[in-house]
Amino acid sequence: MLRLGDDQWDRIREHVPEEHVPYSRPGRKPILIKVVLEAVL
Question: Which of 6, 13, 21, 33 is the most exposed place for a label (fewest CB within 10 A)?
């Protein structure tokens, strides 16, 4: 798995949509989009 540095993440953050799902919602807890993107890369 590739790890994005903070400077790399800051450059692409605005191009990646983030979900705003409350943690109190029942079911699976949301995963940070940065973690998902690192796994895909």
Answer: 6
